[in-house]
Design brief:
Layout (H helix, E strand, L loop, with lengths): L1 H13 L1 H13 L7 H11 L4 H21 L1 H4 L5 H125 L1
Helix pairs in contact: 1-3, 2-3, 3-4, 3-6, 4-6
């Protein structure tokens, strides 16, 4: 219903010159130059690039002129000659036929352009989503690299702490070994002295 209403509205607007031409034909009792009003309306309707409107307009003009010629022949053609009337209508129909195909090809071109535009828009949207996903992936990758760097830093710090602790433990063990060695040396020295003292005591006792 909506399309029919739009077609009717466009047809009435486009046929304004033809309607005025028919009124002047009846009022002036026929003028050849008034046929140009039908061509003006035909070109106006052709601007819609709607083949149905051209068909509707062509049929409407043929029927209207035929009825008007049957009732008032001289209002359409000053001479009132049937063959002349047929010639004028035939020329009009040829122009309408040509315009029909021009509008058809133009409409197909427009629809094709709209389809290409829709495809291009879909590709742009897809590219935008891909770029967005890439950015999110890059951010995740940067986050992962940062976490890995932090982990490596923590591992390095722990390793340094372990190395430092190991060195401290090694130093402590070395010091303990030196102290034990000193104690053993002291014990041996004391034993030797005790042996000397005991030997001296025995010599004194024997004397």
């Amino acid at each position: 219903f909506f399309n029919l209403q739009e077609h009717l509205k466009s047809l009435i607007i486009g046929s304004g010159a033809a309607i005025a031409g028919i009124i002047f034909m009846i009022a002036l009792k026929g003028e050849y130059k008034l046929f140009f009003t039908f061509y003006i309306s035909l070109m106006t309707i052709g601007l819609y690039f709607n083949t149905r409107l051209i068909i509707y307009y062509g049929v409407l003009i043929n029927v209207t002129l035929s009825v008007l010629f049957a009732v008032l022949p001289t209002a359409v053609i000053p001479s009132g000659d049937l063959s002349e009337f047929i010639s004028f209508v035939f020329l009009f129909d040829i122009n309408a036929f040509v315009l029909y195909y021009v509008a058809k090809w133009g409409n197909e071109y427009i629809l094709g352009a709209e389809q290409k535009e829709a495809e291009a828009k879909a590709l742009v949207d897809k590219l935008g989503k891909t770029m967005k996903n890439s950015e999110e992936s890059a951010e995740e990758l940067d986050g992962g690299i940062k976490e890995l760097t932090d982990s490596m830093r923590n591992i390095r710090e722990v390793s340094n702490s372990i190395n430092a602790a190991s060195q401290e433990i090694a130093q402590g063990i070395s010091q303990e070994a030196q102290e034990i060695q000193s104690i053993l040396t002291s014990v041996i020295d004391n034993r030797i002295r005790l042996e000397e003292i005991r030997g001296a005591s025995e010599e004194i006792s024997d004397g």
